[in-house]
Amino acid sequence: MATDTVTISGLDALEVASQQKVPGRASRVWAATWPKLTALALALGLWQVVVWSGWKPEYALPAPLTVATDLWAYATGGALWDGLLITAQRAAIGFGAAVAVGLVLGLAVARVKVLRAALGSMITALQTMPSIAWFPLAILLFQLSEQAIFFVVVLGAAPSIANGVIHGVDYVPPLLLRAGRNLGARGLNLYRYVIAPAALPAIVAGLKQGWAFAWRSLMAGELLVVIAKSTSIGVQLTYARELSDAPRVISVMIVILVVGLLVDLLFTKADNAIRRRWGLLDRE
Amino acid sequence: MTSTTLVPEGATTAVALSGVTKVYGRGADAVVALDRVSLDVAPGEFVCLVGASGCGKSTLLNLVAGLDAVSGGGIHVAGDARPGLMFQEPALFPWLTVGANVEVPLKLRGLAGAERKTRVAELLDTVHLGDFARRRPHELSGGMRQRVALARTLALDTPVLLMDEPFGALDAMTRDILHDELERLWTARNAAGKPLTVLFVTHNVREAARLADRIVLLSSRPGRVIWQTPVDVARPRRIDSAEVATLAAEVTDRLRAEVGRHGH
Ligand SMILES: Nc1ncnc2c1ncn2[C@@H]1O[C@H](COP(=O)(O)OP(=O)(O)OP(=O)(O)O)[C@@H](O)[C@H]1O
Ligand SMILES: [Mg+2]
């Protein structure tokens, strides 16, 4: 964006004057963050007020500052990172498998009529099933094991991902398909050059939703399926409750929230990048 | 038979339509878009199809391109060449840059990377968009997108070019330049012994008179060939020449008579 140094007069000057008011990066970031910070401050303030009111004893509902101190100790000690490692590994493996299953299933259902008739509505039904309801069966099948957790994480996330793929493939603009075919793309090439890129936004949306389900299923799994010697985040939450360590319970919850949000943010970023490339963002 | 073939009997044809009928839908909702259209196009011939909106011009091109199936009759393209179709809308891939869009057919044809690069640059220069290779389609104007689409279709290097109102969204000046460019390209291909057959759809009768070897008039729904005329004006032509204007006036009269008959 080069600015002209040529003398500008009349309406052009007005135009430029209004353009100069376009805020810089720093103030844009600030404009986006201050409402969030204010909301956070208000929430913390409310929490503090409830604590002060003496509605619950301090050992059940600790003050924000107590939790902050514990969170600091938690983060600087080894427990958090050991737990995160285990949990992140499970999340990566489970979500990765769900992505593989979801992509293959979605593609198969999108392309094969019989499969669509047979599985189309079942996938949507699976999506509405609370994943925690799978655990009793998972535990019967796999006992209290990694597999039980894995099973539920995949079942929780794969339907959303499959639905994203189905949706994406269904809504590829017919004109672009025709253009691709006319340019010589047949069979696999049509997928490579037209269908896959055209379906990408819907697939990313499916991945984002799939992640939310995977993360919830994983946390439910770690709370229910306590495996001896494993100190995952969920297990730490259970132990903290059993020890009536309220500050730690809340600290772990904050960690769970932050991890979920950070990964979600990655998907949002990817989604925005795609939409900017396609010219679907109404900015600049 | 509604057609009067101008191509001498026995001469090879690049595109042959015989009794082509296209019906969309079924039962009470059926729309007869084309009704027994017969047309022979000689190799290297430039044919302009003119007709009222909705008379089946786009349908015809889609059928010749093999993107839709005929309901009746047959279409034969010489040597089973795959015609390149420039759609009525630009139909660019929004996820690719302008250069990458033009590169797609080159990739699909199996050209090597270095060769593709030079070809893309050449093709974009042909449509006067050499500086826009790295832009995305949404950053271009409607007319510019149409020119990218033209470059992408030309990248197919096909012997049969189907163009569906390609210059409809352009200003008169750019259009004139692209007419010259297209005529130059077409003449060069024919002179080089690699005939380029063009089926060109337009609403603009002057454009048809400017470009065509032959103008074919289609009737309104259902589309039929109702009239055709050879264009015996020496090339290179100018759109504002007297001969082009005279012919355009004649075609307009025919078109008026046709539209009037249908009470539009
Ligand atoms: N996919 C479709 N399904 C049903 N009817 C269609 C379809 N495509 C075209 N038609 C109908 O066929 C007729 C011819 O359409 P076509 O697009 O070929 O017209 P056209 O001559 O290209 O018009 P224009 O000059 O406005 O582009 C129209 O009446 C249209 O409604
Ligand atoms: Mg049309």
TrEMBL record, chain A:
Keywords: Cell membrane, Membrane, Transmembrane, Transmembrane helix, Transport. InterPro entries: MetI-like (IPR000515), MetI-like_sf (IPR035906). It is found in: Cell membrane. The chain crosses the membrane at residues 37-55, 91-110, 122-142, 148-169, 190-207, 249-267. SUPFAM superfamilies: MetI-like. It comes from the Bacteria. Residues 84-267 form the ABC transmembrane type-1 domain. Pfam families: BPD_transp_1 (PF00528). It is a multi-pass membrane protein. PROSITE patterns: ABC_TM1. Belongs to the binding-protein-dependent transport system permease family. PANTHER family: ALKANE SULFONATE ABC TRANSPORTER-RELATED, MEMBRANE SUBUNIT, TRANSPORT SYSTEM INTEGRAL MEMBRANE PROTEIN. This is Sulfate ABC transporter permease. The gene is ssuC_3.
UniProtKB/TrEMBL annotation, chain B:
The keyword Transport applies. GO terms for molecular function: ATP binding. InterPro entries: AAA+_ATPase, ABC_transporter-like_ATP-bd, ABC_transporter-like_CS, ABC_transporter_ATP-bind, P-loop_NTPase. The keyword Transport applies. Pfam families: ABC_tran. Keywords: ATP-binding, Nucleotide-binding, Transport. Residues 15-245 form the ABC transporter domain. It comes from the Bacteria. Gene3D superfamilies: P-loop containing nucleotide triphosphate hydrolases. This is ABC transporter ATP-binding protein. It comes from Asanoa siamensis.
